[in-house]
């Protein structure tokens, strides 16, 4: 459905990235950045790139406008746990983290993207001609029930002690909630039918070799 590349994951401390790492168009940091590491994070941006990170209890968006110029603006006040500080190995040096290299796509990948994009445009035009709107299925919301409690008071000696007591209405609501939970649980156990993948159906109907069809679908079976 989408044309972005397959994601690549690297485990490591982001404050130990190798100095020869390439720069990025978009960076998001999900932990509090200390003021000392602000410039370190900004250097990882390309010119025109955007960095979003929490710093000094403010979620900050930074746009790199030039080699040595940035524009910053605060989005909202936040509270994040701080970044884990780098650890030194036995030699007293940091263990650098290597990121995946940025390689130009080969001709096969570019051809696959173009073919899938063309087929997707055909599908969109067909759906528009039929008046079918492309909408994501709505998520089912659970109904919340408020419980009402009646407090009773019991005399113990000279003291008045409150004691909660469930009313009949509360019991009925508990039974209804239990029935709804059982119903939701039974519905969750039912296997859901996956949505139709029109792009895959269009690819599989083409008069092409099976190996080429598999390549166009990224060798996925669904």
From TrEMBL:
Compositional bias ranges of the Acidic residues kind: 166-182
Localization of this protein: Cytoplasm; Membrane
Keyword Transmembrane helix: no
Bias type Basic and acidic residues, positions: 183-203
Alphabetized UniProt keyword annotations: Cytoplasm, Lipoprotein, Membrane, Myristate
InterPro entries xrefs: PCMT, SAM-dependent_MTases_sf
GO CC field: cytoplasm; membrane
Principal location: cytoplasm
Membrane topology classification: Lipid-anchor
Keyword Lipoprotein included in the entry's annotation: yes
Pfam families associated with the record: PCMT (PF01135)
Region (Disordered) location: 164-203
A molecular function (GO) term: protein-L-isoaspartate (D-aspartate) O-methyltransferase activity
Function: Substrate recognition component of an ECS (Elongin BC-CUL5-SOCS-box protein) E3 ubiquitin ligase complex which mediates the ubiquitination and subsequent proteasomal degradation of target proteins. Specifically binds to the methyltransferase cofactor S-adenosylmethionine (AdoMet) via the N-terminal AdoMet binding motif, but does not display methyltransferase activity. May provide an alternate maintenance pathway for modified proteins by acting as a damage-specific E3 ubiquitin ligase adaptor protein.
Family that this chain belongs to: Belongs to the methyltransferase superfamily. L-isoaspartyl/D-aspartyl protein methyltransferase family.
Name this protein carries in UniProt: Protein-L-isoaspartate O-methyltransferase domain-containing protein 1
Organism this protein belongs to: Arenaria interpres
